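Section 3.1 - Work completed
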Amino acid sequence: MDIGSFNLHDTFVVLDPDNHATPEENNADLYTRIDARYDKFKSHQLLSAHIFTEDWANWEIHPKGDEVVLLITGEATLRLKINNTEHIFTLSKPGDYVLVPRNTWHTAEVPNQAALLFVTPGEGTQHQPV
């Protein structure tokens, strides 16, 4: 068990299928490292936080589960593509969140700055340019 005090922007948390939590340093090799350590993230989730100052450059999709995207500060608009229809959700006050259903392409627009918390089922995640 890893015990300590961490900052979620610097140290993410991997949640395994038994709900064991493992801190993982947020650095350049994070995603390569967690793919190797956690069997390509099969049945795992990633708890992370990011600060954005511009729109996302990509759409992403998580085929193995729903993602939670929660606003900590700022404002962000999430765009989801469901059955060829785009759905738009604006997160404008701390605590607002969007549940992104599995297999749903999504991206975000950030007018100024936004800090977002994510609970992501990472296995099989894909990206494509906006």
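Second construct:
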Amino acid sequence: MRLDDIDKKLIEILADDGRISYVNLAEQVGLSRVAVKDRIHNLMEKGIIEKFTVVVNSEKAGKQISAFFEVEVEPMQLQKVAQNLADNPNVASIYQMTGPSTLHMHVLVEDMKMLETFINDELYSVEGINRIESSVILKRFKSRNGYKL
């Protein structure tokens, strides 16, 4: 589906404020409330807008440590390991990356002790993981809140 300028503007506005009313959206893009509602419904039906959600500040919610992991996995174990890790409540996101069966994972935990526990008890115990590299975030400059058009 090709997006026209109005669809792009709707997505941009919604990315900044997902709670904005159809009336306010309509005013900003110069369409009727009904037309805006139909366009948003169409964008959702086509899968361009996947869902509406909240963005939680993990630090203020008690998750003080944010770390990224590169997890090298035995190729035949990749799907199993990825699902096992994806089910862990400390794992914020996980992606299969190019390279030798590598998973890229973002983990949020309360403190350094919890990070140590996560690594020792929940990563090293997973069968099929060959190597783990980690980096702890010191400061966040920008965080992704959805794709900007």
